[in-house]
């Protein structure tokens, strides 16, 4: 898993007025959760964008008041109209304990069914997995070049060493749909 560093400052006040003032300054309120940790802090929105708007999953090295915490981004909250970032949660990880996390799914290859005139329909963009942070990849790559017209690939077909896939094995990942012009009556 790729790593990224973020700077945060612990916040002592958490009233609505204080939080509104932080957001006007371009700072986003955040929380770091963990077994022994529960820290409220704020960080620059510009830095948080590197973690949110990406196709990778990062192990975040949060530096808050001189102390570094290894974490992963757990949840982001956005304004319903303006879609601006309102709040972010991080989960403190431990190198010896497995974590549950959603990893992005990237389909690779040029399916034979698409070359024959079919349409690729990707149904899953991320998978829920469990594993140690030292063995978790930044994303999961799946080769779909073997799919023919009318075929689909399911989560059960993916096997990754040292990682448990928690998404149901019956969930479809990608399907090659047959266009109406090629269907026989």
Task: Name the features.
185 residues, mainly beta, 6-stranded mixed beta barrel, 4-stranded mixed beta sheet, 3 helices, 11% helix
Biggest sheet, strands in spatial order? Answer: 1-3-2-6-5-4
CA distance, first residue to last residue: 49 Å
Q: How many beta-strand segments?
A: 13
Please state the oligomeric state of the protein chains shown.
single chain
Please state the structural category. mainly beta
Strand content: over 45%
**Rg, please?**
21 Å
**What kind of sheet is the major sheet?**
6 strands, mixed, barrel
H and E string: EHEEHEEEEHEEEEEE
Shape category: elongated
User: pLDDT under 50 segments (min length 5)?
Assistant: none
Q: Provide the helix percentage.
A: 10-25%
Counting DSSP H or I runs of 4 or more residues, the number of helices is 3
- Overall mean pLDDT stands at 90
Describe the structure.
The protein is mainly beta. It is built from 3 helices and 13 strands. It has helices at residues 16-24, 45-52, 112-115; strands spanning 2-10, 27-33, 38-44, 58-64, 67-78, 85-92, 99-108, 119-122, 126-131, 140-143, 152-154, 164-165, 172-177. The radius of gyration is 21 Å and the shape is elongated. Strands 1-3-2-6-5-4 form a 6-stranded mixed β-barrel. The model has no long low-confidence stretch (mean pLDDT 90).
Helix/strand layout:
Layout: E1 2-10, H1 16-24, E2 27-33, E3 38-44, H2 45-52, E4 58-64, E5 67-78, E6 85-92, E7 99-108, H3 112-115, E8 119-122, E9 126-131, E10 140-143, E11 152-154, E12 164-165, E13 172-177
Parallel strand pairs: 1-4, 2-6, 7-10
Antiparallel strand pairs: 1-3, 2-3, 4-5, 5-6, 7-9, 8-13, 9-12, 11-13
């Amino acid at each position: 898993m790729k790593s990224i560093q973020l700077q945060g400052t612990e916040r002592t006040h958490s009233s609505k007025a204080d939080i509104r003032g932080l957001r006007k300054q371009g700072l986003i309120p955040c929380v770091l959760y963990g077994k022994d940790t529960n820290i409220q802090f704020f960080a620059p929105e510009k830095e948080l964008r590197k973690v949110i708007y990406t196709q990778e999953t990062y192990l975040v090295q949060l530096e808050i008041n001189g102390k570094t915490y290894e974490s992963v981004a757990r949840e982001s909250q956005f304004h319903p109209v303006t879609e601006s970032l309102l709040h972010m949660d991080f989960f403190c990880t431990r190198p010896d304990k497995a974590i549950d996390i959603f990893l992005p799914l990237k389909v690779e290859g040029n399916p034979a069914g698409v070359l024959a005139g079919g349409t690729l329909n990707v149904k899953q963009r991320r998978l829920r997995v469990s594993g140690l942070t030292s063995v978790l990849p930044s994303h999961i790559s799946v080769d779909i070049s073997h799919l023919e017209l009318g075929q689909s690939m399911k989560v059960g077909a993916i096997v990754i060493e040292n990682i448990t896939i928690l998404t149901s094995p019956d969930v479809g990942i990608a399907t090659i749909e047959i266009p109406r012009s090629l269907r026989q009556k």
